[in-house]
From TrEMBL:
One of its GO terms (molecular function) is dioxygenase activity. The keyword Metal-binding applies. Residues 1-29, 394-419 are annotated as: Disordered. InterPro entries: Cholesterol_7-desaturase (IPR050584), Homotrim_ring_OHase_catalytic (IPR021028), Rieske_2Fe-2S (IPR017941), Rieske_2Fe-2S_sf (IPR036922). Coiled coil: none annotated. Signal peptide: none annotated. It comes from Streptomyces rugosispiralis. PROSITE patterns: RIESKE (PS51296). This is Aromatic ring-hydroxylating dioxygenase subunit alpha. Residues 406-419 have a biased composition (Pro residues). SUPFAM superfamilies: Bet v1-like, ISP domain. Residues 45-150 form the Rieske domain. The keyword Metal-binding applies. Keywords: 2Fe-2S, Dioxygenase, Iron, Iron-sulfur, Metal-binding, Oxidoreductase.
Length: 419
């Protein structure tokens, strides 16, 4: 007799080629750009780490499958391909022997930080004939939101301005922020889809301590509304309990939780707020969850906005960048930091977000049989397909043009912003 005495706890195999035995969609071939972006969409800026982490000692990172060394010199952060052309040793293992350079630890090949050119070869003397003749690739670097951002090019194009890729309200408004950057398992697309996924929050997160006193709905009727380069989830109906024929009643309402609101709401996910922060209100967001390329999620609450940036590392890993922003200045910032460090960091960016990390790590699709709320997923895939097609055409046009200077890849039109 065969006895199965232990559950199968092996790591799921994320093979995309398997027998078509599962119901539904077998692959993502209807979104070819998206399907091909397992290691990320090139041609975008990605946040890598906190600015404070980057010093004169180089550190290694992988973004979109590219190995990168980040280092700071005289206040400026630089990104170089993290592989010495001599014998392939990572430059992040090296250090600085001269200002404005980084030296490989093995034989002292020394690279100029702004250009990546081989500036000196210490162990071949000042007359080394390779000096100035080769080098390593460099990447454009910017610093925003207290983080170092690196542009991963498609070819050799000039990057678009980073501000055209940031959420509009983060450019030109004063704010304070707190956040977490974490390496996480799972493809970046699973993380991004999870962030905008309409169906899961009310079920997966119903046990999160962050929601201890606030009930989550049972089910919603949701629309996807495009605006500028963003898509928004708009809730038309919110149902707090339901009778499932032949199965029973289900609700997340509990005696210790607050009563759910009577009206449908589109800021926050547990109720309608009495007062909304003026900067947030001025954006006139059609819905509380919105998403844009290359995987930027915005969740608007009445008093703050939570952002997630899903940074592709490789096919099976991503970096989670979660940021909570409060549009305030002066003494109010103290109140925000107290709230962030005392609660939000642990409950929201910790346990609540940890539930997402768990699901992203174990998701295994396609195949997939999508259901009605997955309109959020298909709308995102459609958006990315369209935006990336436009980007490729712009970069292609730039590289084939000989007379005119190369234009930057066209950013999508900005949404109307109300003053
Ligand atoms: S491997 Fe880098 S100097 Fe030799
Ligand atoms: Fe979630």
């Amino acid at each position: 007799m065969t006895v199965e005495d232990s559950p199968d706890t092996a790591t799921p195999v994320r093979s995309r080629r398997r027998k078509p035995a599962e119901p539904g969609r077998q692959d993502w071939s209807s979104w070819p750009h998206y399907d091909g972006a397992a290691a990320g969409f090139r041609g975008y800026w990605y946040p890598v780490t906190w600015s404070s982490q980057i010093t004169g000692k180089p550190l290694p990172f992988t973004i979109c499958g590219e190995r990168i060394a980040l280092i700071r010199d005289n206040g400026t952060a630089y990104a170089l391909h993290n592989r010495c052309p001599h014998r392939g040793v990572p430059l992040s293992e090296g250090n600085q022997q001269f200002p404005g350079t980084v030296s490989c630890p093995y034989h002292g090949w020394t690279f100029d930080l702004p250009t990546g050119r081989l500036a000196a070869v210490i162990t071949d003397g000042p007359g080394c004939r390779l000096t100035g003749k080769l080098g390593v690739r460099t990447y454009p670097v910017e610093e925003r939101l207290g983080m170092v951002w690196v542009y991963i090019p498609i070819a050799d194009e000039e990057p678009h301005p980073i501000d055209s890729q940031l959420p509009e309200e983060l450019v030109g408004n004063a704010f304070v922020m707190g956040g977490r950057i974490e390496p996480r398992g799972g493809n970046w697309r699973f993380a991004c889809e999870n962030g905008f996924d309409e169906g899961h929050a009310k079920y997966l997160h119903r046990t999160a301590l962050w929601r201890l006193f606030k009930p989550m709905p049972t089910w919603n009727i949701t629309r996807i509304v495009p605006r500028g380069r963003w898509i928004f989830r708009v809730q038309d109906e919110v149902h707090w309990d339901a009778e499932f024929p032949g199965v029973g009643r289900w609700t997340n309402k509990r005696w210790w939780k607050m009563q759910p609101p009577k009206e449908t709401f589109n800021i926050g996910n547990t109720g309608k707020a009495d007062q909304i922060d003026p900067t947030i209100e001025a954006q006139e967001f059609p819905g509380f969850a919105s998403l844009s390329m290359p995987g930027v999620l915005r969740i608007a609450y009445p008093k703050f906005i939570h952002y997630e940036f899903y940074v592709p590392v490789d096919e099976g890993n991503h970096r989670y960048v979660g940021v909570m922003v409060n549009f305030t200045e002066g003494w109010d910032t103290v109140r925000f930091y107290a709230k962030y460090l005392g609660a939000i960091r642990w409950l929201f960016h910790g346990q609540f977000s940890g539930q997402d990390a768990w699901m992203v790590d174990v998701t295994d699709a396609p195949p997939e049989k999508l259901y009605r709320p997955d309109i959020s997923l298909t709308a995102w895939r459609n958006l990315s397909e369209e935006e990336y097609g436009k980007k490729l055409a712009a970069v292609d046009g730039a590289s084939t043009s000989t007379s005119a200077p190369a234009p930057a890849p066209a950013p999508a039109p900005a949404p109307e912003k109300k003053a």
